[in-house]
Design goal:
Helices cover 81% and strands 0% of the residues. It is mainly alpha-helical. The protein has one domain (3-520).
Length: 522
């Protein structure tokens, strides 16, 4: 990979990461506002999170997952090998067909909302607070969000293919701002405040879609109604998409299993898992998804041009960057779980018990972070080649293991009267992430699709050593929960910021001494 291309990759990844970071900051402000100002004593937040889980599941697998990973390689082929008119024809036909399908799914989802709630959260049926009925009502409001956010994700795929990464990366900020305003200003107007979140979510989906249409108009690619279900590009999407739905959605399917089981556990379990998962999503989105977002269009282009040298160099670059980021981030989250939660959330409605319960599942999720990031990067290797069969096999194995481990760990923790049984669900998710990564890596290496550069091993070893030194440094601080609880908000933020900043600085100084820098990751 040439220096200019490598520099461009870093620039694109940096753009996505910076805007994603900006989005996630607002995401944490949103979640903090929700958990601090809205009580979950009757399980209302649990009900909303379940109602949100359903359209979000569709968004992840159709929008950000299957559809995007099937759409980008095909659009890339049209962009590189077809005329501009043929590209427009493909975009028009595909978005028209998708819109009709999503409208039908949305209508059906609204009609069968109570059934969906029974499937995803059967434990709510016996709730003394009427969680099942509340969740069903909320789902009727939130389900159409899936329509708007999936279309937003497809338009983001078009923009990414044309190397416009900034607009899609900043778009989620809109939803977060709308939900923050809903919590502060709209929630007090409702007898049940979580209804404000449901309406805010729906409105946010509409605004996000509208926001991304403008750059598409400037590019001259604004989609027009064109129903042509026999378009060859759509046929290719169908072939790729069904396996990818499963192959790219291991984490989401695992989270659905988690939700089903968590609905039978004590009130708050779903919220604790949601919040801890949100903290894992930050590094996963910043690095795993950002790297994969930049890799997929380029790998697809190299594969279509049969440029194997650039293809492999690009994939190795992605793995090395993933290693350098995932290891210290994982350890940092494990060591600082409670200080982070106390600093950001332990106010008003979010108790010290909520901190403990969220922290144990955050630690369990953090253990699996390198596997999650690695799988995100590796799976682009398959989808760029339009190989959807093996990722499905790897995903199926991981999901089966996750389901079995969920049952075993939860039953074991219940048998020993462990206080936070939900941690078993997080541990199972982390283990399944490594299983998925293992099979994706093993097959790619065995079939020589991926040829590991020697520098990958060197960078891994140096990153492990730098992470160990950083760990020793962090442990020199007093991380006792009682001490952090006694601090006021200013000192909490100041101390946490100091620890994170100085730890990161030490890590990167060690890497620099090992002669590892962005310019020489090759």
């Amino acid at each position: 990979m040439s220096l200019s291309i490598k520099t461009k990759f870093f620039k694109n990844t940096a753009v996505v990461s910076v805007f994603t970071m900006f989005s996630r900051i607002f995401g944490y402000i949103r979640d903090a506002a929700i958990f601090i100002f809205i009580s979950n004593s009757t399980g209302a937040l649990d009900a909303f999170l379940v109602a949100f889980r359903v359209p979000n599941f569709f968004r992840r697998i159709f929008g950000e997952g299957a559809l995007s990973t099937a759409y980008i390689p095909i659009l890339s082929d049209y962009k590189n090998n077809k005329s501009n008119e043929e590209v427009k024809e493909f975009i028009n036909s595909s978005i028209t067909t998708l819109s009709i399908i999503l409208l039908i799914i949305s209508f059906i989802g609204i009609l069968i909302a109570p059934i969906l709630i029974y499937i995803i959260a059967p434990g709510f049926v016996n709730s003394e607070y009427g969680q099942s009925e509340l969740a069903g009502n909320l789902l009727r409001i939130t389900f159409p969000y899936m329509l708007f956010i999936c279309l937003t994700a497809v338009i983001a795929s078009i923009l990414n293919t044309y190397e416009n990464f900034s607009v899609p990366a900043i778009t989620p900020v809109i939803l977060n701002i709308i939900l923050i305003l809903s919590v502060i200003y709209l929630a007090p107007l409702f007898e049940e405040p979580v209804y404000a979140l449901a309406w805010g979510l729906l409105f946010g989906g509409i605004v996000q879609l509208s926001f991304q249409l403008y750059p598409l108009i400037k590019m001259g690619l604004f989609p027009k109604y064109k129903l042509n279900k026999n378009h060859p590009g759509i046929k290719k999407i169908k072939v790729l998409m069904l396996p990818v739905i499963f192959g790219s959605s291991v984490t989401q399917i695992n989270l659905i299993f988690d939700t089903i089981i968590a609905s039978f556990l004590i009130t708050g379990s779903i919220s604790w898992l949601y919040m801890s998962d949100r903290f894992i999503e930050l590094p996963l989105a910043l690095f795993g998804i950002s790297i994969a977002t930049v890799l997929l269009p380029k790998l697809s282009e190299y594969y279509s041009k049969s440029d194997n040298k650039s293809y492999n160099a690009t994939l190795n670059w992605g793995l090395k960057l993933g290693i350098l980021i995932s290891l210290p981030t994982s350890i940092g989250l494990i060591l600082l779980a409670e200080p982070i939660l106390i600093t950001l959330l332990q106010y008003r409605e979010f108790s010290i018990n909520d901190v403990y319960m969220t922290a144990i599942s955050l630690i369990a999720f953090a253990i699996g972070l390198p596997g999650m990031i690695g799988a995100k990067i590796l799976i682009t290797n398959y989808y760029s080649r339009k190989d959807t069969k093996y990722p499905v096999k790897a995903a199926l194995i991981a999901v089966i293991f996750n389901f079995i481990l969920n049952i075993i760990l939860v039953l074991y923790l219940i048998s020993i009267n462990f206080k936070g049984v939900h941690i078993g669900l997080a541990v199972a998710t982390s283990i399944s992430a490594y299983i998925n990564f293992y099979f994706l890596f093993k097959n790619a290496y065995k079939t020589k699709i991926l040829i590991i550069d020697k520098s990958v091993i060197k960078i891994f070893a140096k990153s492990v050593l730098a992470t160990l030194i950083m760990t020793v440094y962090i442990l020199n601080y007093d991380l006792n929960v009682n001490l952090w609880v006694e601090l006021d908000i200013y000192n909490r933020i100041k101390t946490l910021f100091l620890i994170i900043l100085s730890s990161a600085l030490i890590y990167f100084i060690i890497l620099y001494l090992f002669k590892i820098s962005p310019k020489n990751i090759r």
